[in-house]
Amino acid sequence: MRVSLCTISFRHHLLSIGEIARFARGSGFDGIELWGVHARNLGPGDHGEWLAAYGLRVPMLSDYLPLDAAPELLSERTAGLCRLAEQWRSPRLRTFAGTKGSAATSPEERALIASRLRMAAGHVADHGMRLLVETHPNTLADTTASLMRLLEEVDHPALKVNFDALHVWEGGDDPLAVHDRLGAHIDYYHLKNVRARSDLSVFDPANVYAAAGRREGMTGLFEGALDYRSFLDSLHPNAEASLEWFGDACSSVLPADLLALRNVTARRRNELAFQMDIAG
């Protein structure tokens, strides 16, 4: 399993991309998921080649396409993100499926978001990339039923899913069951955990992006309410994911979570190998 860290974890830190790259390499990460605003402010250049010298890559550039804006603006923004992704040699762009929950979205609004996602997916596909919508509250991917319907409505092979297990659980669905239903639609994973369901509000965007926002309730990957050991067992060994940490103490929590993740997945691989030896 290839695991990256997210530059959004360092949104309130005064660190250069070089410092983050050295931290990622030293901690054993495989790559860096780049936040769109960070990518735009790093300027042009073949950044992918520079990052490869660290043994790292950008598996996904994460941003927020203005799906309800005028088509010209959406096209301009999508083209700009594709150029940035090419500079970083990233195969994926991540966006949210609108800015309103599925229950609060009218049929006309839903049709508009679906058509704009289809348009954006076409632009992204022309650049040899994939467009991912994230399972997330207050979007059209806030429940499994709405997300499955959206994938059918958009009906474009370049549109995939960034599977955030915690948000799937937050929406009231079983992550393992949803994972089986979505199957090949899933192209990437975000991994994070929370102390208890009552603490889920700590991930509200207004709180996450606020420098003085509340961080209590954010917890290590294997210390929270969601059972990641069972979930990780369901993933393909070549799956790609990011540890999406929004809390304090990035320099200690991220390496600790990565080590625990590596240990859990290695133990599972060994168990499977042992079972195959016995069966053989």
Spans of 5+ residues with little confidence (pLDDT < 50)?
none
Strand order of the largest sheet: 1-2-3-4-5-6-7-10
Instruction: Please trace the helix and strand order, writing H or E for each element.
Output: EHEHHEHEHEHEHHEEHEHEH
Task: Supply Rg.
Answer: 18 Å
- Tell me the total number of β-strands: 10
Beta-strand fraction estimate? 5-15%
- The number of distinct helices, counting runs of at least 4 residues, comes to 11
Mean pLDDT over the full residue set: 95
Terminal-residue CA separation: 25 Å
Quaternary structure? single chain
- Approximate shape: globular
Structural class computed from helices and strand pairing: alpha/beta
What portion of residues is helical?
A: 40-55%
The major pleated sheet works out as: 8 strands, parallel, barrel
Provide an overview of this structure:
It is a single chain. Helix 5 packs across helix 6 (144-154). With 280 residues, the chain is α/β, with parallel strands linked by helices. The strands form two sheets. The chain has an eight-stranded parallel β-barrel with strand order 1-2-3-4-5-6-7-10, surrounded by four helices. A two-stranded antiparallel sheet has the order 8-9. The radius of gyration is 18 Å and the shape is globular. It has helices at residues 17-27, 36-41, 47-52, 71-88, 107-126, 144-154, 165-170, 175-182, 205-209, 228-233, 250-279; strands at residues 2-6, 31-35, 61-62, 92-95, 130-134, 159-164, 186-191, 193-194, 218-219, 240-243. The mean pLDDT is 95. Strand 4, helix 5 (107-126) and strand 5 form a beta-alpha-beta unit. Helix content is 45%, strand content 15%. InterPro entries: IolE/XylAMocC-like (IPR050312), Xyl_isomerase-like_sf (IPR036237), Xyl_isomerase-like_TIM-brl (IPR013022). Residues 22-246 form the Xylose isomerase-like TIM barrel domain.
